[in-house]
Amino acid sequence: RIRPELVVLADADAVADEAATRVAAAMREAVAARGQCVLALSGGSTPRRLHARLVAMGAEALPWAQTYIVFGDERCVPPDDSASNFGMARETLLAHVPVPDAQVLRMEGERPPADGAERYEATLRALATRLGVAEEDALFDVVLLGMGADGHTASLFPGDAALDETTRWVLDVCAPATYAPRDRLTLTLPALSRARTVLVLAGGAEKRDAVAHALRGDADARETLPVARVRGRARTTWLLDRVAAGHA
Ligand code: 6PG
């Protein structure tokens, strides 16, 4: 197991600053090296601060015109539903940066889940073909991940059978009853692992136990939380505030 890189920062703003710096560098590097960048966004609330910083850099500061936006997961709701991860990304980032519409590849949460999963898998495979990315190569330049207090990441929940998937890139899953909406679409571990850079952002006291568990990475794979089973091409970097890291 390659130990993840741990970066502990003062608070949520510092985490967002560091994340924005790293995302910007990875975008520039990808476009310089390969002519385009594929950026996978995460959902929930943590990304809002990061998105605000990417927007504040200025529309022309980053190579948005050469960037493809994909999503790590989506709730099965229409885009204008307040629970939609695409809706949050559109409101906080995509409406403010010049990514061509055709390069924003959203998961269709408004479709029946199984159909939405199949269609997104086809969308990602078409993207890989268009970019000339071979099966074993990284498709995503940056994968952004969060983690719930229960240790889920994207919409991969601890103990869920979706974690055993080895070939499909997108699955429809049912979140635990504590989560609404329960029907979700999610990238699988094999898909999330097709990343050059994986950044996990987590902050706040409610994440502390899950962070400690994920970083412990028990020997038994089934005991290891989903995020600890994402194997990007490079080391995964955790950007944590002091509270989530258990330092405060
Ligand atoms: C989702 C997200 C999920 C998120 C965690 C953390 O659809 O819920 O993709 O994986 O990253 O739930 O969410 P917060 O950032 O709101 O704590």
Automatic annotation (TrEMBL):
Pathway: Carbohydrate degradation; pentose phosphate pathway; D-ribulose 5-phosphate from D-glucose 6-phosphate (oxidative stage): step 2/3. CDD domains: 6PGL. It comes from the Bacteria. One of its GO terms (molecular function) is 6-phosphogluconolactonase activity. Hydrolysis of 6-phosphogluconolactone to 6-phosphogluconate. Belongs to the glucosamine/galactosamine-6-phosphate isomerase family. 6-phosphogluconolactonase subfamily. This is 6-phosphogluconolactonase. It comes from Roseisolibacter agri. The lineage of its organism: Bacteria, Pseudomonadati, Gemmatimonadota, Gemmatimonadia, Gemmatimonadales.
